[in-house]
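User: Quick one: structure for sequence A, then sequence B.

Assistant: Sequence A:
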Amino acid sequence: MRYFYYPGCSMSSSALEYDVSTKAVLGELGAEVVEVEDWTCCGASTAETVSFLLSLVLPARNLALAERMDGDGDFLVGCSACYTNHCKVGEHVKRDPRLLDKINAALSIEHLTYTGKVRVRHLLDVLANDFGPEAIAVRVKRSLSALSVAPYYGCQIVRPYGLCDDSEYPTTMDEVLAATGAEVFPYAMKVKCCGGVLMTTKKDVALRLVGGLLQAAKGADCIVTVCPLCQMNLEAYQGDVSRYMGEDLHIPVLYLPQLLGLAFDLPREKLKLERNMASPRPVLDKLA
């Protein structure tokens, strides 16, 4: 299987461990991952505050670059915000076909054309549906049966465009985790918002939201995420959250491909666990 890979800004910098472990796990599964050449920022959550058209042109540019690459393949994204931004281009063009001419007029300065022929996929979708629990299970070299893992989907991969899964109680990540032998922790907060960028604008609100997520995971050995911003909020502020909530809420937080990499017994340099801000040591000790 071949994928045109868009790492995005976070996965090529602050969330490099997500990027490296993603490519390592997909390689182990036999996928061909080709990075989109000359990709740029998709606009994150801020472009639309400047211009609605800009918020479509920025991700459309990346899709147009993928469309002109050799061969067939889906457009693979690991960041949930980037996934949403790239999905929305096609969704808005379907609702208002006149947008396509406006987008391509902007892209014409680089001699690019967006047609919509490349399908946007999230990493979790690819792992769960292109490979599936069976293909993952046969590659497990170290069972994770000692671990209880809370799957955190966040809010942007299940809505508004979403995976082929239930938007309120998805199970695709649960099934992937179960294939490693891990116990899937019954996590009722799996699609509740982490607050996103509110941590920099309305910190008390974000601390309360993250506090609820960490409280609900008490009893699990770790939380697993599939989004750099969710990962940042859940692990970087555990000290602040613990003080705000009045209880110790420290817990390891890993990216899904990092955990899969442990199950596949991949080299540690392919997982970059040393970059995680919430120490993964309790998880590693349980697997020792």
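Sequence B:
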Amino acid sequence: MLFVFLKNKSLAESFTEQQSILNLNEDLAVEIESLHTLTTNLASTLDETEQKKKEEAQEAKTLSYRLSLAAEEREQKKEFLTQTKNQEKIYQEELKELEAQQSEISSEIEKIEDELRRSFDVTLLPLERPGILLWPVPLATSGGQGRITQHFGERSNLYRGKPHNGLDIGAPIGTPVIAADDGIVIGVDNNDNSWRKYQYGKYVLIEHKTNLTTLYAHLSKQVVSKGDSVKRGDIIGYVGNTGYSTGPHLHFGVYWRDSIIMKSIPPAKGLVPVGVVIDAEKYL
């Protein structure tokens, strides 16, 4: 500033030049702020565009899967009709046999769960509060497609009057199912035996650091593998009607992590997860 005063012939010229410099600095500050705002807006727009691309890609993937699933279902129906030769009597006999076999499987699971429950220590579980787990299929009330069709502990003829060991969420076949929390996939299996449907059908089992393990059953497709690390909200499969099921829905089970055992219970194929079950809604 002193240089400005000394180099000019008059005080008026010095003040005029000083004011010009101040005005220039102010203009530069405004331009810099505008540039910063533009950069921020551009970054935000790019983020939104990238997110939209991801969402569109996922929607396209889901649509493609639903189309392939429709073809798979036609093949399954064709196989079933071939097996029964369209004879109603054979069909009814097969249903009765499946019901009897499923009843035996359920009884075996109940016995094991009762034994495991004796060593259950409730203090090892996280405090019951909302938000510990995400809804694996968002409900229609929050913008999703799911609806609760049966709560934990409810009794029905389908389970021989026994308490239901999970939370059923009805949704269209092909609806994405997401991981309720961060964890490691410890089970991916299918209990169905050809067109004969048993227990959980296609399922995914995830172990969490909260001393909980979550089960996602009756899926039409699993998109993770055993040993995978998943994040809260990751898609792990799609709603289906596999296993012992009367309609498209997700059976969501929550277990005390340390109680889980994988049991072979013929005629169900693969392994059936068994453990101490907990009311999922206390953590959702």
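Residues 87-282 form a domain with the Glucose Permease (Domain IIA) fold (CATH 2.70.70.10). The two ends are 66 Å apart (CA to CA).

User: Thanks, that's what I needed.
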